[in-house]
Amino acid sequence: MNNRYVDVTDDVRQMLEEVRDKYFPELVNAKIALFFDMKHRKSGGQMVLGRILRPNDLIRYLTADEREAPEGCDYIITLDKVCWDHIHKLDRIRLLRHELRHTYFDIEATSPYKLQNHTINDFHEEVELNKDDPRWMEKAASLTESIYEQQKEEREEKKSKKKR
After folding, report:
1. How many whole angstroms separate alpha carbon 57 and alpha carbon 23?
2. How many whole angstroms separate alpha carbon 98 and alpha carbon 86?
């Protein structure tokens, strides 16, 4: 079976929990589904290294788990698998932190877990936290794009050899 999305490993889940505990204590009770995206994805000409979204009612139903999340997940995060496999731990933390930065907790709302857009091309808080390497995301995207290009070339070369 050729699935686009696959479950992340336990170490990725652990890293998400550590990032959430350290930077986003308001999300301590949020149920977050986490998957690797196995497909090269672009949006607006930019590599998509990670993405967070709020599930609709059907996805909430499908992610319901009697013990862990009886009402389903509050957020879904997808991470580009090629990127994740080739970046350093600090950049992995930055990526998770960036995606969680999109969250907004509205204690007054019936459904308190919301999403928000960037305050700038990133988030003001992330600019400060990443001042030691402000272009980390560009470098990770460039590396990931290069790997996808190399994989594409290898597939095409393999295909042309089969035709001979």
Report:
1. 28
2. 18
Provide the greatest CA pair distance for the chain: 66
* Rounded-to-integer distance, Cα 160 and Cα 164, Å: 7
pLDDT in tens, 54-98: 998 898 888 888 777 778 899 999 999 999 999 999 999 999 999
Look-up of token digits 């997940």: 73
- The answer to whether residues 116 and 75 touch, using CB atoms and an 8 Å cutoff, is no
CA dist., res. 54 & res. 73, Å (int)? 8
Summarize the confidence of residues 5-21 as an average pLDDT: 96
Mean pLDDT, the chain, whole residue set:
89
Q: Using DSSP bridges, classify how beta strands 42-43 and 50-53 pair: parallel, antiparallel or unpaired.
A: unpaired
- Alpha-carbon distance of 95 to 67, in angstroms, equals 28
List, in order of start, the domains of the chain with CATH numbers. 5-163 (3.30.2010.10)
Q: Tens digit of pLDDT for each residue in 30-56?
A: 999 999 999 999 888 888 999 999 998
Alpha carbon distance 63, 139 (integer Å): 34
- 11, 71, 62, 68: which is closest to 19 by C-alpha? 11
